[in-house]
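RESIDUES AND SHAPES:
===
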Amino acid sequence: MGTLGTGMLIIAILAFGVTGGILLHTHWPFGDGPADAPDAGDYGLIVELGELVTNIATEVPGRDRYVHLEIDLLVEGDATRDALSVYSSPIRREILSIVRGTKVSQVEGRDGLDRLAEEIADSINDIIDPLEVDDVFFTEFLIQ
């Protein structure tokens, strides 16, 4: 690469770097930048359940579909987090059962995912009663 090519490459890298920095600063959703981001403690504890892969019901008999999902749970405190750890196998089994019984058309769109999250939270809360999960977040939800 000649001197002209190297100079153009450096200019392009600097331009993208400056533009990216401006965009990050002006579009950061929490005020003036990352320092103003809310503390996770403001919302409770996040417990990662990890990766789950299972089949999901379809409207077409004989057509297998699978769902890959990762779930995080919002909980109030350490006691709930500890209960989720103790009951992790029954909780995972219940989530898999719920997802297997759900049709693809039932989880289309935000409303469908919200209903599924609510059903999962209710089932987990039945297992860890009297403790409870405040919210269920799908950090990944992929149907194949």
